[in-house]
Design brief:
The protein is α/β, with parallel strands linked by helices. The protein has helices at 2-6, 11-28, 38-57, 67-86, 89-106, 109-113, 145-157, 165-170, 190-203, 224-231, 253-271, 287-296, 329-336; strands at residues 125-130, 132-133, 142-143, 161-162, 180-186, 207-211, 236-240, 277-279, 299-301, 320-321, 339-340, 345-347, 352-353, 362-365, 377-380, 387-388, 390-394, 397-401, 410-419, 422-432. Strands 1, 4, 5, 6, 7 and 10 form a six-stranded parallel sheet that branches. Strands 11, 13, 15, 16, 19 and 20 form a six-stranded mixed sheet that branches. Strands 12-14-18-17 form a four-stranded antiparallel sheet, with no helix packed on it.
């Protein structure tokens, strides 16, 4: 039984477990042995593990617990029972240690899963980002409904699957055998509710609506009643888009946390829960902010272009912005057919650049299995205009040599490759600080 539960463990997890478990056991050794015999505990242990493994195979809600985590569920329950029986302070200390272990290895599983890097034949999930519908005076964030409907037909005609956000969550770590399309809408403008929502509802097309809590109910924005109406549908999901929707990357860290925490509280008050999806306003964030977001959410979306695959950072997920300028049907049909451009590692990790590191030193490390990397071309807006970027490929490592600084407020680079199966694409957005 022990070998079965430990066979899939990360070595760092396992070493931490052994150390902390031994410490807990040392404390327990001081406890009198007048507690229920081991035969009862073994029966309970075997029954619990068998039950949990059985449900795990059925992919029930308990499948989010790893095999490793199941041992801690048992240990925690067992120790709490003994606390009630023995009322020993020492045993309480041991239980706290095991609870600490359990929290580390379950609630923080996202960060561990995010470190699993391996190349696969993943057709990916392409996420589209919309804002306004039929609001012509805002061309940079608007899309006409007639164009939107034609875009939906393009997706259907190519036999791509609209991805329910619930399935996106459950199957994120599984390579996609068929192309998935995930629709997202930012800001919860009233034009979405009046124009796009009836069409999406009629056709039961899944989507995530990202809501900033401060503007809710104000002129031009949806109300909580309207948001709750949408949230009731099993194909419609609500995401968190901060409270203020300001340039959060300009906030000091305490002010940033206050903004996020305020949005979380309002969501819990209004909907009864905080969404698991987050969208960075303007796609901007620092590494420190991203780490805080990872403590509050399971996924976070930016505004850099690309296709989601199993190797993408769950807190830097790409989306293609769609508007009047970048929403023409020819371009749309090209981008929905794009394939994931997978990579093992990318530097710099922090997408906030300042005068000290502008332009940044950037490289992308690919997998040994990836072919045709000599076909890569990259374009960036370094300096002032979009131009081809100087790149150098060496042993599956792409060095990007920026010649000019990025101008305030956002810098971008997009890389593509015409592979044997089609075009692959990834993009990166930098937040440019003038200080």
């Amino acid at each position: 039984m022990w070998s079965l539960t430990c066979s899939e463990l990360n070595p760092y997890k396992f070493s931490s477990f052994v150390t902390l478990k031994a410490f807990a056991a040392a404390i327990e050794a001081l406890i009198p042995e007048n507690f229920p015999g081991p035969w009862l505990i073994n029966i309970l242990f075997t029954s619990l593990i068998f039950t949990l493994f059985f449900f795990k195979k059925l992919k029930s809600s308990i499948t989010n617990l790893s095999k490793f985590s199941l041992l801690f569920v048992y240990s925690l329950v067992y120790d709490l029972l003994l606390i009630m029986i023995l009322k020993k302070i020492l045993f309480a200390a041991a239980s706290i240690i095991k609870l600490f272990i359990f929290i580390i290895f379950t609630t923080n599983s996202n960060s561990w899963e995010n470190n699993k890097k391996y190349y696969s034949n993943d057709l990916g999930t392409l996420s589209l980002m919309y804002h306004r519908f039929n609001e012509n005076k805002y061309p940079s964030t608007n899309i006409e409904m007639e164009i939107f409907k034609k875009q939906i037909n393009i997706i259907k005609n190519n036999n791509f699957d609209f991805y329910n956000p619930n399935q996106f969550d459950l199957n994120f770590n599984n390579p996609k055998l068929n192309k998935k399309i995930l629709i997202t809408i930012d800001d919860a403008f009233i034009s979405f509710y009046k124009n796009a929502w009836p069409y999406l509802k009629k056709n039961k097309i899944p989507f995530i609506l990202f809501v900033s809590t401060k503007p809710v109910g104000k002129q031009g924005y949806m109300t909580w009643t309207q948001i709750k109406e949408i949230e009731k549908e099993n194909f419609a999901f609500i995401g968190n888009h901060s409270h203020s929707h300001e340039y959060l990357v300009n906030f000091n860290f305490e002010k940033f946390k206050k903004d996020i925490d305020q949005s979380v509280k309002i969501f819990k008050d209004e909907l009864g829960y905080n969404p698991i999806y987050f969208s960075y306003p303007f796609g901007e964030y620092s590494l420190k902010q991203k780490k805080y977001i990872s403590e509050k959410f399971k996924y976070a979306f930016g505004q850099h272009s690309g296709i989601i695959d199993t190797n993408k950072d769950k807190f830097e997920l790409p989306r293609f912005p769609i508007n009047e300028k970048y929403g023409d049907l020819k371009r749309f049909e090209f981008l929905v057919k794009l394939l994931p451009f997978q990579y093992k590692k990318i530097e710099p990790v922090d997408k906030l650049i300042t005068k000290i590191n502008n332009p940044p030193e950037m490289f992308v490390e690919f997998f040994d299995e990836q072919m045709n990397l000599d076909r890569i071309n990259c374009f960036s807006n370094e300096g002032k205009n979009w131009n081809k970027t100087d790149i150098e490929l060496n042993n599956k490592k792409l060095l990007i040599n920026f010649k000019q600084k990025f101008l305030f407020r956002r810098g971008r680079i997009n890389c593509s490759m015409n592979d044997n199966d089609g075009w692959r694409w990834f993009g990166i957005q930098f937040s440019v600080n003038e200080n």
